[in-house]
Design a protein that fits this description.
The structure holds two protein chains of two kinds. Chain A is an alpha/beta fold. Chain A contains eleven helices and four strands; from the N terminus they run H-H-H-H-H-E-E-H-H-H-E-E-H-H-H. Chain A has two domains: 37 residues, no CATH class; 159 residues, Nitrile hydratase alpha /Thiocyanate hydrolase gamma (Nitrile Hydratase, Chain A). The model of chain B has no long low-confidence stretch (mean pLDDT 85). The chains are: A alpha/beta, B mainly alpha. At the A-B interface, helix 1, helix 2, helix 3, helix 6 and helix 9 of A face helix 1, strand 2, helix 2, helix 4 and helix 5 of B.
Chain lengths: 211, 105
């Protein structure tokens, strides 16, 4: 190979560090053994990078459902209560947890921008940040909720909580009937991000109900 | 019971590093190590709790970055289950370090 070419075009891959090499070794061996494909690993990584945030909030909700004293602490002092279950909540920001009841439904919005309780819910979905959601949820919450397939009877009051950089809200949904005796992990499994924003209610999957 | 939920239940010292509630991988290999462990559990190669126990033990030994402990736990479990052998892992890793294989994630 001649040496008179432009050195900027030289392209030597850098040797991986020992730990990188071990990760590469394991992945390539597992692929060769037919246990997984690299595409499946790609998929898992990107899914978790974006979707797992809300699971922390679900854990808080499930704990509140099984422990009445914890629920009271959660409603009184959100940041302290989420710390109890191992979630760090940044100082200087209030977290107010609002409880859904038979006759009261809560939903959160940020009319000004996209304030969101990210330590418990991860990053906000795109629609949460959209101007129509932000303006219409305040003016006509029932219509917006219907668009999310959540139709509330007239006797249920709807409270809309407008988040700010100082105060963030999270909805504590009602525990559905038919979940008696479930473990906290099972309960957390039915608490979705949308339930904690207030645009959905927890639902029991058909397979669990049949068990 | 989904693996998602089990992953979320890693807590205390074993809790996943996060920023703004999202998982944080400081380098691509960390994401790969994470994905491998979760995927093998989803596929039923081992129970998630078996991996979690190993991870907690690795972390308890201290002095390693989180995902190094994670990778150690994964490797130990795969060796214990005879899914891979130490010889093949060592040999393959040496090939990557020597650039005999393309180190692309």
């Amino acid at each position: 190979m001649s040496h008179d070419h432009d050195h900027d075009h030289d392209h030597h891959p850098e040797a991986p560090s020992p730990v990188e090499a071990r990760a590469l070794a394991l992945e390539s061996l597992l692929v060769e053994k037919g246990l997984l494909t690299s595409e499946e690993v790609d998929h898992i990584v990107s899914m978790y990078e974006h979707d797992i945030g809300p699971m922390l909030g679900a854990k808080v909700v499930a704990h509140a459902w099984v422990d009445e004293a914890y629920k009271q602490r959660l409603l009184e002092d959100g940041p302290a209560a989420v710390k109890e279950v191992g979630i760090s909540y940044p100082a200087g920001t209030q977290l107010v947890v609002v409880e859904n009841k038979q006759d009261v439904h809560n939903v959160i919005v940020c009319t000004l921008c996209s304030c969101y309780p990210w330590p418990v819910l991860g990053l906000p979905p795109t629609w949460y940040k959209s101007p129509p959601y932000r303006s219409r949820m305040v003016r006509e919450p029932r219509s917006v909720l219907e668009e999310f397939n959540l139709t509330l009877p007239d006797e249920v009051a709807v409270n809309v909580w407008d988040s700010s950089s100082d105060v963030r809200y999270m909805v504590l949904p009602e525990r559905p009937h038919g979940t008696e005796g479930w473990s906290e992990e099972q309960l957390a499994g039915i608490v979705t991000r949308d339930c904690m924003i207030g645009v959905a209610r927890p639902r029991i999957p058909a397979e669990s109900a049949a068990r | 019971m989904s693996v998602d939920n089990r992953v979320a239940y890693l807590d205390g010292e074993a809790a996943l590093p996060r920023k703004n509630g999202e998982l944080v991988f400081a380098a691509p290999w960390e994401g790969r190590a994470f994905g491998l462990a979760v995927l093998l559990s989803e596929k039923g190669v081992y129970e998630w709790d078996d991996f979690r126990t190993g991870l907690v033990d690795e972390i308890a030994r201290g002095d390693e970055a989180y995902y190094e402990s994670w990778l150690d736990a994964l490797e130990s479990l795969l060796l214990a289950r005879e899914i891979v052998t130490r010889e093949e892992v060592t040999k393959r890793a040496e090939q990557y370090v020597a650039l005999e294989r393309d180190p692309v994630f």
